[in-house]
Amino acid sequence: KAGVTQTPRYLIKTRGQQVTLSCSPISGHRSVSWYQQTPGQGLQFLFEYFSETQRNKGNFPGRFSGRQFSNSRSEMNVSTLELGDSALYLCASSRTQNTGELFFGEGSRLTVL
Amino acid sequence: QQQVKQSPQSLIVQKGGISIINCAYENTAFDYFPWYQQFPGKGPALLIAIRPDVSEKKEGRFTISFNKSAKQFSLHIMDSQPGDSATYFCAAKGGADGLTFGKGTHLIIQP
């Protein structure tokens, strides 16, 4: 069974640009969550999507957004990039919403210059 | 406000020894406490989890001890092996919020 797939794995952007990251969940999993991982702040919850609807959101500015498609695949977007957005962005899928049993992908490493 | 405090930041244990990582939480609404293991270049992977209605859960060499009154929980790795060298994160979840993670413990098992 294939795991969670994230693309791209690495990307470099400059301040002010925007970026879109993609996530394909494990087959049969209907919930997708996104987390930001940095050395300073650790792992922080961004948002969770289930059945194409955002179910809850972490404490991040509106520049961070996402969506989920009918096939459960998800994308997250960060607009007007700042240096502090440099991080590993992790996608996790789960069978149901609102669960702590998450299956993480390997992440998308974003560097903002 | 850090809602889950994890210690130590780093830990070195001899092969065959016991590794112990501790976490404390503040939010009494938390009702699910997982531990995740992360290797370099990989995403976190669920290792073991516990709910507050039990005080201990054991899976192989990994044991979670939970103290509800003290709002503390810990991970014990028995007979630690070099392959256990990784970063370990405790986490907590309550209600509809996402997981709240501790800052992580970098564990090194020396052969």
Explain what you see.
The complex is a heterodimer of chains A (113) and B (111). Chain A is mainly beta and 113 residues long. Chain A contains no helices and eleven strands. In chain A, the strands form two sheets. In chain A, strands 2, 4, 5, 6, 9, 10 and 11 form a seven-stranded mixed sheet that branches. A four-stranded antiparallel sheet of chain A has the order 1-3-8-7, with no helix packed on it. Chain A is globular, with a radius of gyration of 13 Å. The model of chain A has no long low-confidence stretch (mean pLDDT 95). Chain B is mainly β and 111 residues long. Chain A binds chain B through residues 4, 33, 35, 42-48, 55-56, 58, 90, 92, 98-107, and chain B through 32, 34, 36, 41-46, 49, 89, 91, 93, 95-104.
Uncertain segments of chain A are none
Total beta strands of chain B: 11
Number of strands of chain A: 11
Query: What can be said about the biggest beta sheet of chain B?
Result: 6 strands, mixed
Largest interface: A-B, 25 and 23 residues
State Rg of chain A.
13 Å
Proportion of residues in helical segments of chain B: under 10%
Radius of gyration of chain B: 13 Å
**Beta-strand residue fraction of chain A:** over 45%
The overall average pLDDT of chain B, rounded, is 95
Mean pLDDT of chain A: 95
Gap between N and C termini of chain A: 37 Å
User: Which structural class is indicated by helix and strand composition of chain A?
Assistant: mainly beta
Q: Helix tally of chain B? A: 0
Helix/sheet category of chain B: mainly beta
**Poorly predicted ranges of chain B (pLDDT <50, ≥5 residues)?**
none
Rough shape of chain B? globular
Helix and strand run of chain B: EEEEEEEEEEE
